[in-house]
């Protein structure tokens, strides 16, 4: 068994709230870092303790602003230059994942570019959760531990003791995820078809499946402006659903998202803490389930060369 003293946890500034919970769950504390900021906006992170010979886990979600991804890159580089044995980037929310392909001419593949940047910084391993597209794992030439929120969502769903459950995919792209939940929970499946007028703006949405008298659970990897889930929830409630809940791993919640959720007919929105909620908004309908224990357990297993397959219940 490896000595836990050889593991060191560090965090970027905007993921410290989650990193502290991970470290506590693992049985250690966060290492000390300092970020020096210059008047022109440049910044320089540094480790305030030795990492020589240690396996360093750097925890940082890469949600906007771009400072978060660049801070992670600088910390990886600093750890290697300080003679860390291995550097593992723990990225609960992997930003730019929606740019996983060229969906129109003359655009970048942002997810691949971010993967290249992490490789250039010489990261040794990636841990992340619910990538927008599974194939992003193939953008890396280092091991990727891709975790799923199903291991924490399913126990919560069972605790609700709901009858007549139906699982809904918010769009055709989410059909595979929704179908897996539906099979596991022995529930019926609903597929939503939506048409976007432009990015982040839903034109119309229709549902294929039995809605009336059902407690509907909408499954997705993220909620951005909340236009899809709130439009779908209102439509389903008006069509006779008993309740509509949304489950999404990453609460991006940009623009009018908080107001849309608060003013919609949706019963509850269940998310994780891969991205922090805003404290100045109405979050009364939003329930947060922490991923800290899950990541801490996987870190323990990976460090000790143990299988993590039991974490994939769906």
Explain this structure to me?
The chain has 314 residues and is an alpha/beta fold. The chain has helices at 16-26, 67-81, 110-120, 150-159, 175-185, 227-238, 257-263, 292-303; strands spanning 7-11, 33-37, 43-47, 55-59, 86-91, 125-129, 144-147, 165-169, 188-198, 201-208, 215-223, 243-251, 268-272, 286-289. It has a 7-stranded mixed sheet, with helices on both faces. A 5-stranded parallel sheet has the order 1-4-5-6-7, with helices on both faces. Helix 1 crosses helix 8 (292-303). The two termini are 30 Å apart. The mean pLDDT is 93.
Write the layout of secondary structure elements.
Layout lengths: L6 E5 L4 H11 L6 E5 L5 E5 L7 E5 L7 H15 L4 E6 L18 H11 L4 E5 L14 E4 L2 H10 L5 E5 L5 H11 L2 E11 L2 E8 L6 E9 L3 H12 L4 E9 L5 H7 L4 E5 L13 E4 L2 H12 L11
| Averaged pLDDT | 93
How many DSSP-defined strands?
14
Order of helices and strands: EHEEEHEHEEHEHEEEHEHEEH
Helix amount, in percent?
A: 25-40%
Ends distance: 30 Å
Shape: globular
Largest sheet: 7 strands, mixed
SS class: alpha/beta
Oligomer: single chain
Number of helices: 8
Which percent range describes the beta-strand content?
A: 25-35%
Our Rg estimate from Cα atoms comes to 20 Å
- In the sheet with the most strands, the strands line up as 10-9-8-11-12-13-14
- Give unreliable regions as ranges: none
